[in-house]
Structures are given as structure tokens and as C-alpha cells.
Amino acid sequence: MPSGEPFTDGQVHEISRACSTAGAETGLTFSVYVGPVEGEIRDHAERLHAALGSGSTKGVLLLVAPGERQLEIVTGKESARRLSDRSCALAALSMTTAFSGGDLQGGIVPGVRMLAESAGREVRAS
Length: 126
Hints:
- The protein has one domain (9-118): Diaminopimelate Epimerase, Chain A, domain 1 (Roll).
- By secondary structure, it is α+β, with helices and mostly antiparallel strands.
- It has a three-stranded mixed beta sheet, sandwiched between helices.
- The chain starts with 8 loop residues before the first helix and ends in a 7-residue tail after the last helix.
- Helix 1 runs parallel beside helix 5 and helix 4 packs antiparallel against helix 5.
- Helices cover 52% and strands 15% of the residues.
- The radius of gyration is 14 Å and the shape is globular.
């Protein structure tokens, strides 16, 4: 991998596929940002989440700041009803364990899957 690039094309594809699959299963929108943080991590994550626009109510954003060794999960109004703080904390713990071993992709993909499982399938009105 070139210096400064955290993922191979295959790893990017795996992360993207995990987000797409999670979205299809749950009806929520999963997004992942990996990079530096400007200011406080929570503020930065909330700005990124808000940038989802009208989709932010169903949004789940994972912000991974490897340089700062930080992780933040932001949920929208609807996704927060389906993802408890405990579910997010367990997913974060799982991800940070993989991150501590230097495996970003190996933490993100299972973390997205854990969140999707916790959120459950989308219930559609008949």
C-alpha cells in the first residue's frame, strides 16, 4: 500500500459491501469515514452525519481516526431508536480491539455487521 493510504482497493470494496448489505438488511444508511479529525471528534462526526442530509435520520456514521486513535459512532433519530448505546459500545469495543492489532478493515467490517444485527430488519408497513 502507498504511504498514507490505509486501504487497498479490495479492502475499500469489502467496507463498501458491508455498508450496502447492512443498509439493505436494515433500511438504515451506514457510512464510514476514515481520516483525520478537525476539532473535537464528536463535533466532526456530527458534522459528517449531518452532511447525509435527509438521510441522516436513518443514518449510522462510523468515524475512525487512526492517527488520533479514536472512534465515534453517530446515529440519526430513527437509527438511534433501533441501536442502543450498549449495542454501539459493544461494536466499538470489537472494532477497537481489531484496530489495536493494526487491522482497520478487519475492525470496520465486523463492526458494521454487528450494528446491522443489533438494528434488526426493517419493519415495513403493509
